[in-house]
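Render this sequence as a predicted structure.
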Amino acid sequence: MVTVRRSILSAFFSAALASTCLADAPTSSGTGFAVTPDGWLLTNAHVVQGCKRIEIKGRGDAADPRIDATNDLALVRIDAANRVQPLVFRLSP
């Protein structure tokens, strides 16, 4: 039951926080998830690297990308006027 709930939450956050790099038209897209309640999201660096604008589906534009190209990770921040729920991983006993 716990595994099913985690899968559903993971799928929800992946879909709800999908990021899109926009120029005149979308040039890349990917998934991500909230890591802090104040709006920091984790995604892949190759998705946001070189983007002039990063849009988070249903949340608006993201800013302040922090890119780690070596590990292909990126943090971006959204305006979290409505706080987001970070994805939490728990180990089963």
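Summary. Confidence is low (pLDDT under 50) at residues 1-16. The helical segments are 2-16, 45-48.
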